[in-house]
């Protein structure tokens, strides 16, 4: 029998805080418009899960959180992304600027996690699987945009560029994942 002790070692709390900020700013339209029960429910689930994850990292499993390695300066992401959202958006209105901010921020929110892995030099297998599927989710969005353009004529340059940036940030990790983790080895960075 295997006994598993829950912990958050190897997970960047800062990346999770950024994701919570992403979903909060993206779904502020919950306060102004109703699309459907499904849409509202899913947005609330995204926001709730994001904050539940932050709670687990910083409160419930605080003893296992590795704050000594989670040292990325998130202000170097939030401030430039905020400025870019203010300058490059579809409509100069508060909700649109915040939605654009969420799109830009999501594209770089994984950087604290990748920085943490680079500082420790390795990652647990479960963490690498989590990162792989997070990156795959974003890469699948690229397929979604091609599909929507081809079948619906819909094209959102902000979302596409942000998605490409995020996918590029994952490329090195994807390479290490395929060459090491899928072969049963632990992900460790070259010295």
TrEMBL record:
The chain crosses the membrane at residues 17-38, 44-61, 98-118, 130-151, 157-178. It is found in: Cytoplasmic vesicle, COPI-coated vesicle membrane; Endoplasmic reticulum membrane; Golgi apparatus membrane. One of its GO terms (biological process) is vesicle-mediated transport. Keywords: Cytoplasmic vesicle, Endoplasmic reticulum, ER-Golgi transport, Membrane, Protein transport, Receptor, Transmembrane, Transmembrane helix, Transport. It is a multi-pass membrane protein. It comes from the Eukaryota. It holds the Pfam family ER_lumen_recept. GO terms for molecular function: ER retention sequence binding. Its main location: membrane. InterPro entries: ER_ret_rcpt. GO terms for cellular component: COPI-coated vesicle membrane; endoplasmic reticulum membrane; Golgi membrane. The keyword Lipid metabolism does not apply. Belongs to the ERD2 family. PANTHER family: ER LUMEN PROTEIN RETAINING RECEPTOR. This is KDEL endoplasmic reticulum protein retention receptor 2. The lineage of its organism: Eukaryota, Metazoa, Chordata, Craniata, Vertebrata.
